[in-house]
Amino acid sequence: MGKNKVVFFFILFWALFIPRPIASYINKTAEVPSPEEFFGFKMGSDRKIARWDKIVEYFYTLERASEKIKVVNMGPSTEGSPFLLIIITSPENMSNLNRLREINLKLNDPRRLSEEEVRALVSEGRAVICQSMSLHATEIGGTQMTPELAYDLITRDDEEAKRVLDNVIFLMIPCFNPDGQIMVTDWYLKTVGTEYEGTAPPWLYHKYAGHDNNRDSDHLNLVESLYAAKILFRDWMPQAYLDHHHMGSYGARFYIPPYCEPIRPFADPLIWREHSWYGAHIAYKLEEAGKTGILNAAQFPGWGHFGWHWITPFHNIAGMLTESASAQLATPLFIHPEQLRANALQFPEYEPQTTFPHPWPGGWWRLRDIVEQKKIAALALLDIAARHRETVLWNAYLKAKRQTERGAQGKPAAYIIPATQHDPLTAVKMVNKLLLSGIEIQLARRAFTAGSVIFPEGSYLISLAQPKMGLLRNLLGRTFYPDNTWTRDREGNPRRPYDLATHTMHEFMGVRVDEADEIPAGEFEIVSGEVQVKGKILAQAPAYLLDGRLNDSFKAVNLLLDKGIPVRRAEKATSEFQPGDFIVPVSPKSQDLFAEIASQTGVDFKPLEKLPDQGTHEVKRLRTGIYQRYYGGNMDEGWTRLLLEQFAFPYASLFDPEIKKGKLNAKYDVILLPHDSPGMITGERRESWEGQLPTYPPEYRSGFGQEGVEALKQFVENGGTLITLGDACNLAIEKFGLSVRNVTEKLSSKEFFCPGSTLRVTCDTSHPLGYGMPAEALVLFLSSPAFEILPSPRNELYETVVRYAARDILQSGWLIGEPILANKAALVSASYGKGHVILIGFRSQHRAQTHGTFKLLFNGLIR
Ligand SMILES: [Zn+2]
Question: What distance in angstroms lies between residue 59's CA and the mean position of ligand 1's atoms?
Answer without folding.
Answer: 24
